[in-house]
Specification:
With 450 residues, the protein is an all-alpha fold. 76% of the residues lie in helices and 1% in strands. It has a two-stranded antiparallel sheet. Keywords: Membrane, Transmembrane, Transmembrane helix, Transport.
Length: 450
């Protein structure tokens, strides 16, 4: 009898490639909401709506008197803290289900539905906008936990950096393309639209984009059965919390993952603060108008697409850890250059935006894939819930430092330079991560290049 087993082709790589292509589309889908709504349009719009309802330049937020200009910060902070509390038990639940794609779709569509309520945020009804942005952000955070936990299921250790980087690149491209359309609508105001109407149409389009493109991963991803799930008794909620507590006790067995989480706390907070404060720095310290700032945002978006792909290739040659460390050095150069950037000097400002675009997507994409190598199989969602909780629960450190330094110096230059401490501390902690040991501890295969 002939041995036919050796002639059977291994179809797993083809199946993985199909799932990877489907998975990229979720970054494409949700980035439109992040870019158009969260980054550009929500804050100034809800401030203007709240001002219409303000009495003595104050509105009441759960009984607290708040200035309209501070309202978006309070809302995002509340959503961030709430999501940091809810994500870990959610991650435990996600590790117990094979239907991650359905949860991904459910969170995305619910988030898009909440975001669509922004259409009704007008005529002083800022409360609708508050409910919309809090609900949308909570669902977005939950969907990202599910989405990131799928990465180890559809890519082996050798290809994870490449897959994560491509997904991140697709996200920047999708978010940038819709932002171009929306900014054109806002600038041209066709059909007699007012600025408020154009803004609401733009925010609604981002929610429709998010919901619509989520159908691609929902339909094309496959179900993957849970692996190595803790045996705990009770209903689904009790089992989820039981697994969460078991994992908390077990985390000491993965010291390299914990060290990386601490490093990520610092350098990601530095990245997020640079991005959040860049428009303030450009307008208040450098004297640029809104058109220059918008153009720079678009430049960063499209450069970040290429930057994420470049970093993925570099990781394939030098390893993710060394590539991230190189990116952190570039971030240090960026905040140092910002300290000396001449006022109203457009070319240096655009070059700084170009540099931010190169390292922005790359460092974040590789952080995601690198962390996935350090966590045990079967607990991807739970460990990624801690990853995102670390991101959200501590994201106020950088903005606090930025604000305090500005308060003491009355200048944004030393404030943005102070963020170099976050990249230095993050880099030093990352250097302490023994990649090979961390991968072995987690029971994963060690890639050829680490």
């Amino acid at each position: 009898m002939n041995d036919v087993t050796g002639s059977i082709a291994n179809l797993e790589p083809l199946a993985q490639a199909r799932e990877q292509k489907a998975w990229y589309w979720y970054d494409w889908a949700n980035s439109a909401f992040v870019t158009t709504v969260s980054t550009v349009m929500f804050a100034p719009y809800i401030i203007s709506v709240a001002k219409d309802a303000a009495v003595d330049d104050r509105v009441s937020l759960v009984g607290i008197s708040v200035a309209p200009g501070a309202l978006p910060s309070f809302l995002i902070t509340f959503a961030t803290i709430l999501s940091a509390l809810l994500l870990p038990p959610l991650g435990a639940l996600m590790d117990r289900t094979p239907n991650k794609r359905r949860w991904l779709g459910g969170f995305a569509w619910t988030g898009a539905a909440f975001g669509s309520l922004l259409w009704f945020c007008r005529d002083g009804n800022w409360q609708i906008g508050a409910v919309a942005i809090i609900g949308a952000n909570l669902c977005l955070a939950a969907s990202m936990v599910v989405n990131d936990s799928i990465l180890p299921l559809i890519s082996d250790e050798e290809n994870r950096d490449r897959v994560s980087s491509r997904g991140w690149a697709w996200g920047y491209l999708g978010g940038g393309l819709l932002l171009v359309v929306n900014l054109a609508l806002f600038t041209m105001l066709p059909f007699g639209l007012t600025e408020g109407e154009a803004t609401r149409i733009s925010m609604l389009s981002a929610c429709v984009w998010w919901a619509g493109f989520t159908f691609i991963p929902y339909l094309r991803l496959q179900d993957h059965p849970p692996a190595d799930v803790e045996r705990v008794e009770g209903n689904v909620v009790a089992r989820s919390f039981g697994q969460l507590f078991a994992t908390l006790r077990d985390m000491k067995n993965y010291p390299m993952a914990l060290t990386f989480l601490l490093a990520y706390l610092f350098f990601n907070d530095g990245i997020q603060t640079v991005i959040a404060s860049s428009s303030t720095y450009g307008s208040e310290e450098l004297g640029f108008g809104q058109s220059v700032l918008i153009a720079t945002i678009l430049l960063v978006q499209f450069v970040a697409f290429g930057g994420a792909l470049i970093f993925g290739r570099l990781a394939g040659r030098f390893g993710a850890k060394h590539t991230i460390l190189g990116g952190l050095v570039v971030w240090m150069v960026i905040v140092t250059a910002a300290l000396f950037l001449p006022r109203e000097s457009l070319i240096p400002f655009l070059l700084l935006g170009f540099a931010i675009g190169i390292v922005l997507g790359g460092t974040q994409a590789l952080a995601r894939s690198y962390y996935s190598l350090l966590i045990p199989k079967g607990k991807e969602a739970e460990y990624f819930s801690f990853y995102h909780a670390m991101d959200r629960g501590t994201s106020w450190f950088g903005t606090l430092v930025f604000g305090l330094v500005y308060q003491l110096t009355d200048s944004y230059r030393p404030a943005i330079f102070a963020l170099i401490a976050f990249f230095v501390l993050g880099g030093l902690l990352l250097m302490r991560v023994d990649t090979a040991r961390g991968i072995r501890d987690a029971g994963n295969a060690v890639p050829a290049v680490i």
